[in-house]
Specification:
By secondary structure, the protein is mainly beta. Helices cover 5% and strands 25% of the residues. The chain contains three helices and 20 strands. A hairpin with an 8-residue loop joins strand 6 and strand 7. The longest helix is centred in the C-terminal third of the chain and has 10 residues.
């Protein structure tokens, strides 16, 4: 039996009769009231009994009784929803595809041939639409992948990236199966147990590499991981008292300047990363200038010596040209289409300072901090995996023409996540050699 689905949609496959149609029509013996207030003929075959049409006229002409459609009698009349009369020999199906006599009829199909009531040109009052083939109300008519909003709504897939049962659209940590909210330490990190040291616990748990320059000789020891580095440049890169002193630029291109070389591919393990450093900058060295001195530069080069230039890289300079302020930059094509964020103030000379670069792939941004304060953030659609970090240098640029860093590195750290502003501030306030490490 055919029936109506949501939004007065006629569904030829649904059970039950359509709304407003008498399920016992024609009924013998007495007048039968239809659910919409109409009436059936009083007798199946008795002459003179009139059946009511939708337009109010008698069912049959010349006293012919209203009878079931398809009896073949010339006098048999059926009542259409639009008041017209059907073919006398069989159940009538209108040329526009709607079943004759079903109620309500919206008259809006326009000859499309669908067998549904289409809520006025296939659009319902609530903004949904009707599938003309199946009589299904589509609550997301502009979303080809959904017929109902689900949890995330139309136009947004109910994707659950970490398979924790919470769709990404409402999951505060969509890539962390253990958390749906960042909590104290953020996503992909366990929060401290009750009574622990709060952010100190988080920083300790999130740290991947730490260089405190407490080693001997030329060893730049990694006290957290196993990525030990080497201090280069002989006496131009000297370590003592938990710091390494770099002499700055000594001449054109690369000569024998001091810098720290860390193991290649150090970024490969990270999707998001925070790189922070405590330093004292002395400004111009014996040669070159202050501009473009590198604090760190991770990447590779193109060209031929001595005119090598950066190709893919993530770097932090103490002073960019133009502004004269620190800048963090990312590129996979050298200076073309470089993404960078520049601080709003300069680093004070001969004074210990803290800088942090936060590369947040999850939120598509790169942020720069100076002395615990956010200096700026820029939209970023890249990926750390695009950096070919064969050169992982502190104090030296992948552009051979740039001057080396003239100053002291007190501590250098790499975190495996994008630290929050609260966490960067907490790290700055704890200083370069906190007791909790």
């Amino acid at each position: 039996m055919a029936g109506l689905s949501a939004c007065n949609v006629y569904d030829a496959t649904a059970s039950g009769e359509p709304l407003g149609y008498d399920v016992s029509f024609p009924r013998d013996g007495d007048d039968d009231a239809m659910t919409d207030g109409g009436a059936t003929p009083s007798d199946d075959g008795g002459g003179g009994a009139a059946g009511g049409r939708a337009d109010g006229s008698d069912d049959g002409s010349g006293g012919a009784a209203g009878r079931d459609v398809g009896a073949g009698d010339a006098g048999a009349q059926d009542v259409r929803g639009d008041g017209s009369e059907p073919d006398s020999s069989s159940a009538d199906v209108r040329t526009d595809g709607e079943i004759d006599g079903q109620f309500p009829v919206d008259g809006a199909d326009g000859g499309t041939g669908d067998a549904t009531q289409d809520c006025n040109d296939d659009a319902c009052a609530d903004g949904s639409a009707v599938d003309a083939d199946g009589g299904i109300v589509d609550q997301c008519p502009n979303d080809p992948d959904k017929t109902e909003p689900g949890i995330c709504g139309c136009g947004v897939a109910d994707t659950d990236s970490d398979t924790d049962g919470t769709p990404d659209c409402v999951d505060g940590c969509p890539n962390d199966i253990g958390k749906t909210l960042p909590g104290v330490c953020g996503c992909n990190a366990a929060d401290p147990p009750a009574g622990d040291a709060g952010q100190a616990f988080c920083l300790r748990a999130l740290l991947a590499h730490r260089y405190s320059f407490n080693g001997s000789g030329t060893l730049a020891a990694d006290s957290i991981g196993i990525a030990n580095g080497t201090i280069m440049g002989g006496s131009n890169g000297s370590m003592s008292g938990g710091s390494v002193s770099l002499s700055g630029d000594l001449g054109s291109r690369y000569t024998s300047e001091g810098y720290v070389s860390l193991p290649s591919n150090l970024l490969d393990a990270f999707t998001n990363v925070t790189i922070e450093v405590w330093l004292t900058w002395r400004g111009t060295g014996s040669s070159g200038s202050q501009t473009w001195q590198r604090i760190f530069d991770f990447g590779d080069q193109s060209g031929t010596a001595p005119d090598l230039v950066g190709k893919t890289y993530l770097f932090l300079t103490a002073r960019a040209s133009g502004s004269g302020f620190p800048r963090a930059a990312f590129s996979t094509t050298g200076t073309t289409n470089e993404t960078y964020v520049t601080a709003t103030q300069a680093i004070a000379l001969n004074t210990q300072a803290h800088l942090a670069v936060v590369v947040d792939d999850a939120n598509d941004s790169i942020a720069l901090y100076l002395n615990g304060n956010p200096e700026g953030s820029v939209a970023w659609i890249g990926a750390l995996s695009a950096i070919n970090d064969v050169n992982v240098w502190l104090g030296r640029s992948n552009y051979a023409v740039d001057p080396e860093f003239n100053g002291i590195l007190h501590e250098f750290r790499i975190y495996r996540v994008a630290l929050s502003a609260t966490q960067v501030r907490a790290s700055y306030e704890a200083g370069p050699n906190p007791a909790f490490f």
